């Protein structure tokens, strides 16, 4: 048992029955623990698949060389009498020698033809050297690069010599003539297979190896000579013998068996007639024991045919094939198994039969050899299964032959499937592979066992990619491909599951499916309304793989009506099906215009809009992906196409504030597709936005302006784009290529500056008339301006991956816009008059001194063009200065692919003379290359099918380490709650003035939060978070929150604090970040789980509360507000905004609290002193049910008591504490504390509260108003150091109080130890 299990059990011993009610942590939902949060959204690493043979080979020619010399025994072999005489099951002495020789040759050819009927066979009976040479050369010439087989029977000639020679005859048959293996190699070439059936056959293998090595040396020497003497006449290179296979009947010093019960060509019989020889050998080995009445004559009467599996003989052959395949697969290395058993049908048959030859011939002290060498297999346990199958068949033979009894089929395959099923119960990657896997492949051929075999195969493939690779390596692919031709409905779920698993690991199978029309099978499954959603999901995945980057697959599926089938099911209840339908649509549209227009006719884009509001983030991301592919076709533009694409782009901009990172990533990619289609329009928009920012800078430099601590610009005297006098400003950009979003503050009143005139527009390339840029005018609310503002907004977002992607798009367009703008005077005849559509700013401002310097120059362009800082702006020539080069180099922006020395184009299209008019222009600049933005969302989604979907989740397995760890944490939680209860009872009498922890924080503490169960707390300063172990007095980690410049952290909370804790941080720019492994143990670097803009469009105010949040673990809801006039409710499970509740106040929200039990009451404290109550069950405009106005100043905090009383407690900066009954509009009790209240907190369990003052003291009270103690600053060596209080927080359970002060000191106060 694991240590975690022991700790859990020991902890149980200390928990009494009365504390079992505390163990309700099991029911609490976990937030941000989905796969998209715990793993990177990227595809699996590509694994090279070795199952598919690089080249399939075929043995096309067979040379049968028989040196028998019937009637004359060779001189070096003394044969006893009687001895083995049969050759190819013919007794040569039963007829004349010549007829016997011809009959044996004919029989041998028939035996080989059973394994390879289409090969070209040539017999050479008792040949001479010249005949062998002629035969081999002819076969090699005709075979070209295919394999040739050379079968040599040397029973009538002497044994091979150690010099590497075999024997043939002279023309008169009076002499034995040696034939060198070296010569045979030359004639046969490569690839070839050699079969040697003669005594001492192992000598040939040794000689063959030596000669092959000699040839390799000759080849290397010839290559060296060719390089040294290129002009010399070169001799032809000798053929390499690397790709040659050899089978030898025995070892170098062994004689063939001469037992008269056996045929003389025992080795050949094993290779070509395995069942016949196996049955005879079985009878001789075991006769008189199990089946005494079986004779050789009776064996010949076994009914059936070898190729009919329903008959006894055919079933035995089937079992034999399965067993030999299984032995080979479990014994041989994978690469060797593929080469010998999957590359060539004849070679595979010979090697299967070679395993039998080894078993039989070893029983007669003869060891067959092969090259490549195989490990010994004659004692493999599967041979016992073969013996049992033979026993089962032969035991029925007498009754079948004599009485005509029906044959009872062997239980072999059923038993092997059972063994495979047993393996699956405990199977995993660390165990040896199941040896029955090749048998499962054979069983797929049987209708009797097929259903069960497919079920078990699917369960095996579900174990993971390693299992799929094993199944493919054993040769499962052609079998499951052929089964797609079956019309049996019961096979559909199994085949769809199996194919989903295969394609999730190896997508290259898409070509095989389309070639065999397999895609039609999955189209019929997907269109079947009676098929369960899970199986239709797998069919959609298979089709998505088929159409992925494969034109033939796209065309085939389009013809199969895939688009209409997908669109009909977009509202299915199964979220995975919706997701893969959208991905499938996106992939079939990619670079396939015919499919896109088919979608247009079906209003596919409008039907996909429904999925943009789907509760599942993956579905929303898939819908955005599909719409991005829909508008991303690079075909010829038309007015209709432009209208559709612009409508889709406008719809997509609504997702800019989506809470899921994967959705916003796909959004950037989709909008980038639109940008690529209308680059010229967006370049015009970019320039106008840059100019608008320049004008705003000029106006602000003239008008009085002040910046509030919250980052809001208060403009005195009006604004060119706003009549309110208050100009909302977002925080400045985090990157050099980003910009302030101040230009987005207004969408009305934009007027083109006459100072800019046509000079801004004069060098912008003209777009096609279909885009109707002139009709767009200068309104902010057109498509291009809206999309551009959305992209610039995303540049500011808190998640770096999304921000960087948007930044790349914005930089590319700004670069194109500025490079297309001529930064010097142009002739009047080259000025253009078309106007860009709308302005924005997506680049950071230039340094002030540079701006001022350039504004003071005499160059109109320098004065009027606000260029991003990545593009060097030409300066005016001052007196005494040297003129700059005519073409100053333009440094490329970060992340762009533009070199510093770009090649300039010599011609440019004139804007005012049509798209085809050009003129010479030495000063023109090149167009930057297109940068493509991509994600791996679809590849990551595919990993679902590569992983196990049947496996019981580990956290739900009561015996798993994960479960034990959770159990230990929950018991720890219960113990903390139980022990803290005793302290809570004494809280009203505790002075709580013992400083149990004090340390200096890295920055001024603004927020402090205790972890409920671990002895650590999170402390936020302006832009970083410290993790302190208050029990040990040490800081365990500090990390940056990565919030934007001039923003500060205003909120902290622990998510899933009862289990695997995440840390939530919120900053006053409205961004929320969730951190994992935030390092309180000091072992891991913090990892950003997710980040999003919880609140946008923050309002200007003289004093900002920043971002205020309230986290509900029970419901998974996050409430967010702050310097806005709404309360936004986020569902973290859906990562989606649920509703915006108007506060009705003209001030910011300073504190939020909700009823986690009833989940309907929501309380907000406001900066104007009001406390507002909302009922979330009502409509947003009606849900404010009460406004409490007794406070006269800023509400520091509101608190909702739990339990039967349920009073609301609120405190304001004036020091007045109000108790409210939610049923009444007047307070039920007021407690007056000291003025200048800076921080306030109420203990959630104990009846005490604390007030922190800027006057360097902390007061503690009971809820009855009784002052317990006051912690003040004391001088002296032993005195407590306490500065002006900036934040306070009680521990959720222990009666501990944490206090941060403006002098960066952090203290924790507790009960004085006695």
UniProtKB/TrEMBL annotation:
Q: What keywords tag this UniProt record?
A: Repeat, WD repeat
Q: Which InterPro entries match?
A: ARM-like, ARM-type_fold, HEAT, Raptor, Raptor_N, WD40/YVTN_repeat-like_dom_sf, WD40_repeat_dom_sf, WD40_rpt
Q: Where is this region: Disordered?
A: 718-757, 821-930
Tell me the SUPFAM superfamilies matching this sequence.
ARM repeat (SSF48371), WD40 repeat-like (SSF50978)
Keyword field contains Repeat:
yes
Q: What gene name does this entry carry?
A: RPTOR
Q: What is this protein called?
A: RPTOR protein
Q: Which GO terms describe its biological process?
A: cellular response to amino acid stimulus; cellular response to starvation; positive regulation of cell growth; regulation of autophagy; TORC1 signaling
GO MF, one term, reads: protein-macromolecule adaptor activity
Instruction: Enumerate composition-biased segments (Pro residues).
Output: 881-892
> Which Pfam families does this UniProt record tie to the protein?
HEAT (PF02985), Raptor_N (PF14538), WD40 (PF00400)
- Residue ranges, compositional bias (Polar residues): 834-843
Family, according to the entry, reads as follows: Belongs to the WD repeat RAPTOR family.
What cellular-component terms does GO give this entry? Answer: cytoplasm; TORC1 complex
**Where are the compositionally biased (Basic and acidic residues) regions?**
847-858
Raptor N-terminal CASPase-like domain residues: 56-209
Bias (Low complexity) ranges: 718-746
Ranges: WD repeats: 1062-1075
Looking at the record's lineage, which domain of life comes first? Eukaryota
């Amino acid at each position: 048992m694991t240590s975690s299990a022991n700790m859990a059990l020991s902890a149980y011993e200390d928990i009494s029955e009365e504390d079992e009610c505390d163990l309700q942590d099991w029911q609490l939902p976990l937030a941000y623990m989905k796969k998209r949060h715990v793993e990177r959204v990227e595809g699996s690493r590509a694994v090279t698949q070795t199952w598919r043979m690089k080249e399939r080979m075929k043995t096309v020619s067979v040379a049968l060389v028989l040196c028998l010399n019937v009637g004359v025994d060779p001189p070096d072999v003394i044969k006893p009498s009687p001895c083995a005489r049969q050759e190819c099951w013919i007794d040569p002495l039963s007829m004349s020698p010549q007829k016997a020789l011809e009959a044996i040759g004919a029989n041998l050819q028939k035996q080989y033809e059973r394994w390879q009927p289409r090969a070209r066979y040539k017999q050479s009976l008792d040949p001479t050297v010249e005949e062998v040479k002629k035969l081999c050369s002819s076969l090699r010439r005709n075979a070209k690069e295919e394999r040739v087989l050379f079968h040599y029977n040397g029973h009538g000639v002497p044994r091979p010599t150690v010099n590497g020679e075999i024997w043939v005859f002279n023309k008169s048959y009076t002499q034995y003539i040696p034939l060198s293996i070296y010569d045979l190699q030359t004639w046969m070439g490569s690839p070839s297979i050699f079969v040697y059936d003669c005594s001492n056959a192992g000598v040939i293998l040794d000689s063959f190896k030596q000669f092959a090595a000699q040839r390799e040396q000759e080849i290397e020497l010839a290559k060296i000579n060719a390089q040294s003497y290129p002009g010399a006449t070169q001799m032809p290179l000798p053929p390499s013998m690397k790709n040659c296979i050899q089978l030898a009947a025995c070892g170098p010093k062994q004689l063939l068996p001469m037992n008269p019960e056996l045929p003389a060509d025992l080795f050949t019989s094993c290779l070509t007639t395995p069942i016949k020889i196996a049955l005879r050998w079985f009878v001789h080995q075991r006769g008189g024991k199990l089946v005494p009445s079986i004779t050789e004559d009776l064996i010949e009467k076994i009914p059936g045919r070898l190729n009919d599996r329903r008959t006894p003989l055919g079933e035995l052959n089937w079992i034999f094939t399965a067993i030999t395949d299984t032995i080979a697969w479990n014994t041989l290395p994978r690469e060797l198994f593929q080469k010998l058993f999957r590359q060539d049908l004849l070679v595979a048959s010979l090697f299967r039969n070679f395993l039998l030859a080894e078993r039989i011939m070893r029983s007669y002290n003869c060891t067959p050899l092969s090259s490549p060498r195989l490990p010994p297999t004659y004692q493999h346990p599967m041979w016992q299964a073969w013996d049992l199958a033979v026993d089962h068949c032969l035991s029925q033979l007498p009754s079948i032959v004599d009485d005509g009894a029906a044959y009872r089929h062997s239980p072999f395959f059923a038993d092997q499937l059972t063994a495979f099923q047993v393996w699956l119960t405990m199977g995993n990657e660390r165990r040896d592979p199941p040896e029955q896997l090749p048998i499962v492949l054979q069983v797929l051929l049987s209708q009797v066992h097929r259903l069960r075999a497919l079920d078990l195969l699917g369960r095996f493939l579900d174990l993971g990619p390693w299992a799929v690779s094993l199944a493919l390596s054993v040769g499962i692919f052609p079998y499951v491909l052929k089964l797609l031709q079956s019309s049996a409905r019961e096979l559909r779920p199994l085949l769809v599951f199996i194919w989903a698993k295969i394609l999730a690991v190896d997508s290259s199978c898409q070509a095989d499916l389309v070639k065999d029309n397999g895609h039609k099978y999955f189209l019929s499954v997907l269109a079947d309304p009676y098929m369960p959603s899970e199986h239709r999901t797998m069919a959609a995945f298979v089709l998505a793989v088929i159409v992925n980057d494969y034109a033939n697959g796209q065309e085939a599926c389009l013809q199969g009506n895939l688009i209409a089938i997908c669109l009909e099911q977009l509202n299915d209840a199964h979220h995975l099906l919706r997701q893969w339908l959208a991905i499938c649509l996106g992939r079939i549209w990619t670079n396939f215009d015919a499919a896109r227009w088919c979608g247009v006719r079906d209003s596919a884009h409008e039907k996909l809009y429904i999925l943009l509001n789907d509760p599942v983030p993956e579905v929303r991301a898939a819908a955005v992906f599909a719409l991005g592919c829909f508008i991303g076709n690079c075909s010829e533009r038309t007015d209709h196409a432009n209208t559709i694409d612009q409508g889709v782009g406008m719809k997509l901009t609504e997702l800019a504030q989506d809470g899921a990172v994967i959705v916003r990533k796909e959004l950037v990619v989709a909008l980038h597709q639109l940008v690529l289609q209308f680059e010229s329009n967006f370049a015009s928009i970019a320039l106008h936005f840059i100019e608008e920012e320049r004008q705003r800078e000029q106006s602000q430099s003239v008008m009085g302006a002040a910046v509030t601590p919250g980052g809001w610009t208060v403009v005195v005297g009006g604004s060119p784009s706003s009549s309110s006098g208050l100009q909302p400003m977002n925080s400045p950009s985090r990157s050099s290529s980003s910009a302030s979003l101040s230009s987005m503050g207004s969408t009305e009143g934009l007027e083109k500056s006459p100072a800019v005139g046509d000079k801004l527009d004069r060098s912008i390339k003209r777009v096609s008339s279909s885009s109707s840029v002139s009709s767009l005018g200068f309104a902010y609310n057109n498509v291009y301006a809206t999309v551009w503002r959305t992209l610039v907004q995303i540049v500011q977002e808190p998640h770096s991956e999304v921000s960087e992607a948007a930044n790349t798009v914005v930089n590319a367009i700004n670069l194109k816009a500025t490079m297309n703008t001529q930064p010097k005077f142009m002739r009047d005849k080259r000025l253009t008059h078309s106007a860009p559509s709308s302005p924005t700013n997506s680049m950071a401002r230039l340094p002030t001194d540079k701006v001022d310097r350039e504004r003071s120059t005499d160059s109109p362009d320098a004065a009027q063009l606000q260029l991003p800082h990545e593009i060097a702006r030409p300066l005016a020539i001052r007196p005494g200065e040297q003129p700059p080069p005519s073409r100053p180099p333009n440094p490329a922006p970060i992340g762009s692919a533009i070199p510093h020395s770009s090649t300039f184009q010599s011609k440019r299209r004139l804007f005012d003379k049509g798209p085809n008019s050009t003129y010479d222009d030495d000063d023109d600049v090149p167009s930057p290359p297109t940068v493509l933005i991509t994600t791996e969302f679809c590849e990551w989604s595919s990993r679902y099918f590569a992983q196990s979907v049947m496996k019981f989740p580990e956290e739900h397995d009561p015996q798993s380490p994960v479960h034990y760890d959770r159990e230990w944490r929950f018991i720890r939680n219960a113990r903390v709650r139980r022990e803290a209860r005793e302290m809570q009872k004494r809280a009203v009498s505790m002075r709580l003035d013992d400083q149990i922890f004090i340390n200096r924080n890295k920055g001024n503490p603004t927020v402090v939060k205790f972890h409920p169960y671990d002895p650590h707390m999170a402390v936020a300063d302006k832009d970083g978070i410290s993790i302190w172990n208050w029990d040990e007095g040490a800081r365990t980690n500090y990390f940056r929150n990565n919030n934007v410049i001039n923003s500060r952290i205003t909120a902290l909370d622990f998510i899933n604090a009862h289990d695997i804790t995440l840390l939530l941080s919120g900053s006053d720019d409205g961004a929320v970040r969730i951190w994992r492994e935030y390092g309180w143990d000091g072992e891991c670097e913090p990892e950003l789980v997710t980040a999003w803009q919880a609140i946008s469009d923050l309002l200007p105010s003289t004093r900002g509360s920043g971002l205020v949040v309230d986290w509900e673990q029970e419901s998974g809801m996050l409430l967010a507000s702050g310097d806005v006039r709404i309360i936004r409710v986020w569902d973290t499970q859906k990562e989606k905004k649920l509703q915006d509740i108007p506060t009705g106040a003209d001030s910011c929200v300073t504190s939020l609290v909700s009823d986690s039990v009833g989940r309907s009451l929501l309380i907000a404290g406001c900066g104007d002193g009001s406390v507002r109550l909302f009922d979330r069950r009502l409509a947003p405009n009606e849900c404010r049910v009460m406004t409490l106005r007794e406070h006269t100043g800023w509400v520091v905090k509101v608190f909702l008591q739990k339990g039967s009383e349920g009073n609301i407690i609120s405190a304001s900066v004036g020091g007045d504490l109000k108790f409210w009954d939610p049923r009444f509009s007047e307070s039920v009790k007021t407690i007056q504390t000291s003025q200048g209240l800076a921080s306030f907190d109420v203990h959630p369990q104990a009846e005490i509260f604390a007030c922190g003052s800027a006057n360097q003291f902390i007061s503690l009270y009971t809820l009855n108003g009784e002052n317990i103690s006051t912690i003040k600053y004391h001088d002296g060596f032993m005195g407590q150091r306490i500065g002006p209080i900036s934040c306070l927080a009680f521990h959720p359970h222990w009666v501990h109080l944490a206090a941060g002060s403006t002098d960066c000191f952090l203290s924790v106060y507790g009960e004085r130890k006695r």
